[in-house]
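Problem statement: downstream parser choked on a complex file, so we are re-checking the raw output for the 3,4-dihydroxyphenylalanine run. The parser issue turned out to be on our end (a line-ending mismatch), but while we're here, posting the original submission so the record is complete.
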Amino acid sequence: MVGKINELLEELRAFTATNLDEVEQFRIKHLSKKGTIAALFGDFKNVPNEEKKAVGQLLNQLKTTALDKVNELKDSFTNSDFDKSGLDLSLPADSVKLGSRHPLSLVKNEIIEIFARLGFTISEGPEIEDDWHNFSALNFPEEHPARDMQDTFFIEKNPDILLRTHTSSVQAHDMAEMELPIRCLTPGRVFRNEAISARAHCIFHQIECLYIDENVSFADLKQTLSYFAKEFFGEKTEIRLRPSYFPFTEPSAEVDVTCSLCGGDGCNVCKGTGWLEILGCGMVDPNVLDLNGIDSKKYTGFALGMGIERITMLKYGIKDLRLFFENDIRFLEQFTAAGF
Ligand code: DAH
């Protein structure tokens, strides 16, 4: 009996398999009810009493060896190399930490979406401009005090080159390059020599809107403004136009919307007036059309321009403009918007 057991022990230890089927065959052969080990346990009753202890131990050793062998071989076929290294591949993966869009991008995209519904497409122009595109083509005469309205960064060696002070500069590119009718929207960075404070920065963003066609009227402008205000600030928003002056539009206006925080009753955001200024606009001055090669007797147009920082501050109740440029994650990760 001891001889048989030792022989089987050898056989079990030496066993290897090339697949799970062979392991199962091995298990059935040795560990099932009719297997070799069960048969030996059956013979155990015939072992003389004085040998029972030693033989019993040997039989148990045989059984554990068989069980260990089965488990070890099964593991080797079911687990990949990674598992052997101690990794549990069934654990859920760590979530990927996504960034969030910058609030200025969110608002810019939202404005673009609203105007896209009206058929406006995007046009972009250079940040480094010449005097013509930033001023002259927009009806700012030489030495005209209106040029001082915008504190311009000039290139010292060549005062004809400057950093654009507004995205209106792209109007001149569009009029020169595009086919009529023109219906375009221009987002971009602009630069002014201003001291940095909670309300002003030397770099900020604007969106310019230009529409030129036959028979474009002030009513079209007003309707566009009203549609934009309601889409962006909410259904109940009303607009108000105040006469203003810009060299490139005539007539010109500044546009206010009813304060979305107090609904027009007056609060500290609208300084008790119930109104918030959001943009400048007007009918494209016929001089501008002519200067840019468009027949002002045939075509009319409107233009409007808004500061993205300002609109974003109003939308989210942000009190300090510098936050947009500091890249503080605690500030930036607070902004999310559906669809962007
Ligand atoms: N360019 C002006 C500014 O930066 C904003 C502006 C006003 C744009 C009136 C326009 C407009 O297109 O019609 O202050």
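For whoever reads this later: The radius of gyration is 40 Å.
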